C-alpha cells in the first residue's frame, strides 16, 4: 500500500505523531493530496514564525495561509528588533502591508470569528523607526498613504 493511498484519517493520525516541523514539511511534499490535507497542520504549529518568513521573502499567498492559521500580526523578527510591519515597509510591499493591516482579507472565513487584533503602527525597529518612516525613506507613496490612512491606533 502506497502512502498516497492511505485514507485522510490515517494521514492525520500519522501527522499527529510527527514532532519536527521539518519532517512534516517533507511529508507534505509526497503528493498534492497529502499537501492539501496536511499543510494547514504545518501552519497551525507555528503560524507566526511562518508569517515572519513570508513577509521577509514577500510570499503573499503563503502569508495569507499563516494569517488564516492565527499568526500574530505584531510579531517581531527573531532578534526582536524589527516588527513585521516594518519589514513590510522596508521591502516596499504594498500588498503585504494591506494584508497585515486587514485592508485585504486572506480569504472569506467559513465561520464568523472575531477580527484579529490591529497592527501596532507605533512599534519601532532597532533604529527607532516606525513603518511609516521606513516607507517614507524609500519614497513609496502608496505605502505611505496606506499607513497614514490606517493610523497608529487603527
Q: How is this structure best described in words?
A:
- By secondary structure, the protein is mainly α.
- It folds into two domains: 1-45; 46-154, Ankyrin repeat-containing domain (Serine Threonine Protein Phosphatase 5, Tetratricopeptide repeat), CATH 1.25.40.20.
- The protein has helices spanning 8-17, 21-27, 32-45, 47-56, 60-68, 84-91, 94-101, 131-137, 141-150.
- The longest helix is centred in the N-terminal third of the chain and has 14 residues, at 32-45.
- It is elongated and about 60 Å long.
- The model has no long low-confidence stretch (mean pLDDT 86).
- The end-to-end span amounts to 54 Å
Helicity, as a percent range: 40-55%
| Low-pLDDT ranges | none
H/E series: HHHHHHHHH
- The total tally of domains equals 2
Radius of gyration: 18 Å
Q: Could you tell me the strand content as a percent range?
A: under 5%
Give a quick summary of the entry.
The chain is mainly alpha-helical.
Amino acid at each position: 500500500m502506497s502512502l498516497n493511498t492511505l485514507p485522510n484519517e490515517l494521514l492525520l493520525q500519522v501527522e499527529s505523531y510527527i514532532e519536527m516541523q521539518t519532517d512534516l514539511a517533507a511529508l507534505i511534499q509526497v503528493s498534492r493530496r497529502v499537501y492539501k490535507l496536511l499543510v494547514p497542520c504545518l501552519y497551525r504549529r507555528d503560524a507566526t514564525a511562518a508569517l515572519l518568513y513570508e513577509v521577509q521573502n514577500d510570499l503573499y499567498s503563503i502569508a495569507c495561509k499563516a494569517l488564516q492559521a492565527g499568526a500574530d500580526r505584531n510579531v517581531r523578527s527573531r532578534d526582536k528588533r524589527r516588527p513585521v510591519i516594518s519589514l513590510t515597509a522596508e521591502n516596499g510591499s504594498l500588498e503585504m502591508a494591506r494584508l497585515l493591516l486587514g485592508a485585504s482579507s486572506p480569504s472569506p472565513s467559513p465561520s464568523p470569528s472575531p477580527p484579529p487584533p490591529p497592527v501596532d503602527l507605533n512599534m519601532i525597529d532597532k533604529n527607532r523607526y516606525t513603518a511609516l518612516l521606513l516607507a517614507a525613506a524609500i519614497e513609496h507613496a502608496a505605502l505611505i498613504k496606506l499607513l497614514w490612512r490606517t493610523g497608529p491606533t487603527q
